[in-house]
Fold these 2 entries.
Entry 1:
Amino acid sequence: MTRASISASETSREVVLTCPLDCPDACRLKVRLVTGQDGVERAVNIGGDSRHPITRGFACAKTVHYPARQYHPERPLYPLKKVNGEFVRVSWEQALDDIAVRLREILDRYGPQSILRYNYAGTMGLREGSHVHAFFRALGAPELEETICATAGSAAWELGYGSPRLGVDPEDVPHARLILLWGINSLTTNSHLTPWLTQARKNGARIVHIDPYRNKTSLYADWHLKIRPGTDAALVLGLSRIIIASGWHDEAYLARAGEDFGAFRAECEAWSLARTSDVTGLSESEIQDLARALGTTRPTYIRVGYGMTRHENGGSNLRAVTLLPALLGDWQHRGGGCTLTTSGAFALNRTRLGAAHLIESATPRVNMNELASALAPERGVKALFVYNCNPAVVAPDSERVRAGMARPDMLTVVLEQAMTESARLADFVLPATTFLEHADLYTSYGHHYLSYNDATLPPSGEARPNSWVFGELGRRLGIEEPSLYWSMDELLTELLATEHPHLAGITPEKLRREGSVRLSLPERFLPYANGAHTPSGKVRFSPVPRHTEPRAQLNASYPLRLLTPPAHHFLNSTYGNLDQLTRAEGGEPQVLVHPEDARRDRVTDGALVQVQSETGCITRRVRISDAVQRGVAVLEGTWWGLSAPDGKSVNALTAETLTDLGGGSTFHNTRVRLVPVDPDRQNDLPHHPNVQP
Ligand SMILES: Nc1nc2c(c(=O)[nH]1)N[C@H]1C(S)=C(S)[C@@H](COP(=O)(O)OP(=O)(O)OC[C@H]3O[C@@H](n4cnc5c(=O)[nH]c(N)nc54)[C@H](O)[C@@H]3O)O[C@H]1N2
Ligand SMILES: Nc1nc2c(c(=O)[nH]1)N[C@H]1C(S)=C(S)[C@@H](COP(=O)(O)OP(=O)(O)OC[C@H]3O[C@@H](n4cnc5c(=O)[nH]c(N)nc54)[C@H](O)[C@@H]3O)O[C@H]1N2
Ligand code: SF4
Ligand SMILES: [Mo]
């Protein structure tokens, strides 16, 4: 239904709500709601709020399609129970009673360590995303270490700067005169930074993109440096050697606010221009030009992404980059410095969020990147609860994850808004409400506005918020922990119960009234102008970041490094079931290969190939392109396996290998080879309904 087709008997209104998705922008969305002749109100149109300083009137290419997701014909609207391999509709009473009985048996026989939650940031809402963990913590279930995305970056940042992790205010970016977009495809993954970058460029800034392949951000930037994957620390050390030798570093800042700079300076000595060029794949003149630009342009703003951390040594690589603004003193200038995340500025009182106060040092822990192994029968997990997450697609070693979820002796419960491949593997699918249907509080990791959404639409079908489901299960199991049953109001009051200056004047009433409220930051927010939050109060250069080659080196058997970065039209696997968005991404997942690699491996443009790694094998169509460099293949997007020729996720190839810091994921670490699929055998591949003809 479009606006023009609203007839006289229909009424419409507009609300402004925060986008709940895992994206730094946390946009304020203008949602047009129309009440049809059937009396049911529906969201028909989504755009950006023009009054919001960050959203600036546009939603991204993905979320304008949210109504199609909300009303997707396959959205689960009733509880489903798998009986003899088929889903049958059951009542909530029956689903919850059955699950509670099974849980009681499992608890009595195997104890709480046999019950695992698996969740991530399908919603960024603090209630439906984080607070619901209270159920598992009250049971004493294992703690899930939420490492799939950000912990390598967090650990790297905290080594240098301590906690909380603070970043440059995006609204200050127009003051920068040199901008490095380093290991981030920001036009895709942080699109509401773009207007600030463009403003800076109008003010005279030069924009550089440092990324192994050419994507939207490289085309937007003034200069693209096609760095070899996993070599960012080498580049930083090589640049720093030139900067220090030229006297471009800020000695006064380093003396006042730096710790152990001498050790860093000594490490740089080993990085001659020739060696840096050899390791990074950049030319000597590229490195020299970048060093000069960095050394002589103040303020310099560096936007780093989590992307570059997804390598074996990704923590050290990111850490090296984040030290540059301390070397150059950029933190003292408005618009200068580095942003990994702005999330640390949201100084909420999180002590009892998700009943975190119940976690004990003896509580067993499961690193979420190691789900495939955690679900092996001998590990003793008997019940798996998945919410806000799609592990059958997004977790490493996804074929083994799928096998674990499907174990006949495993109770697998999936709370979902979409009939994902994870949901299809479940014993129970519990229909979840969307952000249009439940209230929540949202922080951001790309700006400094805290926002609140009311529940706007009634739930579709019998969908229920995650918080309702875990409250109902808690009652059935006799859980007495009060925080599990908190209302939105109670949680809001708790989270805002702090004297922290960033939250001064922010009350539940103000949030309700205004929807989105800027944190009470100082007029000039220069978080590390005088040091950091380490024990010494200084930016720590030791342990010195070093360059290390990955253990899994390329060789004749595995000549390509596979990168699997985000797609422009999906948000992780969210939106991967909408035809209009899979079409915009080319209809099916494709592997980008450099012409010379294609020639060597005898693969042709448009042909199907097997992509083989040490973990698994998938079938994909080849796109030959010089957007990638030699020795690197790129598969954009965590597509639904259902959209691929073989039904598998790209993560059938990726391994549980953890990063050097923070136990993070290594999605860009995989070495692969390509094996052409015999054209005569291409028709033998199983047919999958999502593949576009
Ligand atoms: N459209 C869209 N937006 C998204 C997402 C999405 O799926 N789609 N996902 C959201 C989520 S969950 C996150 S965590 C964020 C960030 O999501 P990330 O996956 O961290 O993506 P980026 O930060 O953009 O970084 C990806 C870029 O890093 C590059 N890269 C890979 N290895 C290296 C390396 O060794 N060195 C350097 N310099 N670069 C490297 C890749 O080529 C790619 O261009 O984006 C969020 N926004
Ligand atoms: N190969 C490869 N794999 C990757 C990445 C990569 O770059 N390459 N990126 C990684 C990164 S950075 C991340 S963050 C993870 C993300 O992985 P996930 O956190 O799994 O993110 P999504 O794939 O978007 O799936 C989120 C699911 O949550 C559901 N959901 C949303 N809101 C709610 C709600 O309120 N209630 C319930 N019950 N469900 C809800 C959505 O319908 C959706 O199916 O993937 C990782 N996987
Ligand atoms: S996904 Fe990101 S860019 Fe798109 S509307 Fe949501 S917050 Fe904004
Ligand atoms: Mo992420």
Entry 2:
Amino acid sequence: MHGPEYRMHHYSEATDELADAIFAAARKRISEEPVPLDSTSTDEELAAATGATITPQGLGGHEALRIFDEILAPSCLSVDYTKYLSFVPAAPTEASVLFDVLVGASSIYGGSWIEGAGAVHAENEALQWLVDIAGMPVGSGGVFVAGGTIGNLSAMVAARGRAESRLNAAGLERPSRWAFLAPRTAHSSVASAARVMDADVIQVEVDDDFRMTGEAVADVLASEGYRVAGVVATGGTTNLGRIDHLADIGRVCREEGVWFHVDCAYGGAAMAAPSTRPLFHGIELADSYIVDPHKWLFAPFDCCALLYRDPAAGRSAHAQHAEYLDFLDGWGEWNPSDFAIHLTRRVRGLPFWFSLATHGTSAYAEAIEVTLRLTQIAAEKIRAANHLELAIEPSLSVVVFRRKGWTAQQYQDRSIDMMNEERAFVVPSRHEGEPVYRFCFVNPRTTGEDIDDIIDALV
Ligand SMILES: *Cc1c(COP(=O)(O)O)cnc(C)c1O
């Protein structure tokens, strides 16, 4: 007896043709030099251009691909465009994006060891490198999650779990509200995580260079200590590239027995570069840290590494238990789903692993150094330009500068013009309440001429 008649899952000559078409489109995108910035569109414009795409009969793969290639993809900004310098851009290696195609084709469930052993082993090798560059002890480990936001939230939940179990062990009552310490320079995802957890963020002062100090942390802990579940420091603030005083803060956290989390979502890559590694002194004291390989470690979206000094703390906060999952528990190796807020997961660390395995860690160090040199070159050019001035000395790969004499509206308008001309994507930010422009360099392909062109566009 055969199964029912069925056609959708079926490898045929037509599939071969579609594969060729999709691989050709992917290859064209990867090989484009330069990558165009492309543009954005309104929903009405897109609807008019594509017509209905979800239909009872289906469009066929070639037509759906044509719509993507001709209409949808050009209506998305290319984050790896060399003059896309806003927010935190991305510059995945060819190796990583090519391998991402194979990851998608491999139908690997990345939540448990028994199902994804080979892939999880490789992910863990890549995670181990991130443990090593931070100087965290043997036994540290974690998991790749979708982004820094989920990474911070998962680490903060683990921190609260440990604080709770310590109170329980001491026979003490839990506080009516838990709190985390963080400075105002912390990423918005920290406040978001606290909201999800119904916890408070207590703001810690920063020094003149916008860095949180150990002393300030100690002061707040002295008054609020009983309800503090963790301290969240930043290794590379998104807006200014500042690194908090990690060694001092880490020492205070140790003394007080408070969880020390370091958000290195953007900046962590700089630990792999010899010239910037010393700035992270003290991170080896962290109970947890995150870094986004999709930012400055040349991996495609979406990929954040979350590392715990004591993975058991992550596991006890996050492991899910259910009848249908019992079978997975006997396998002592390493279930990635145990370490964050998720269960099913794509093995999203594999494109990063493949690129790292392909090129070697020295190539990574070199690529990051290239972006750091670009940062210095950009700062020099801004110092030399009459119409511009640095708002603050650059740190890591962030350059924040003013266009002398412009209002916030002029900043905004010029950014939109540059985007519409497909010339550059450089949007205004704010520093101390004033409008500024901000460059963030993560793309080693950006050149001095690219920077000159943007400086010219701001005359
Ligand atoms: C980007 C960033 C985040 C958020 O990461 P996502 O991957 O965008 O969720 C958190 N912290 C810092 C410092 C960041 O730069």
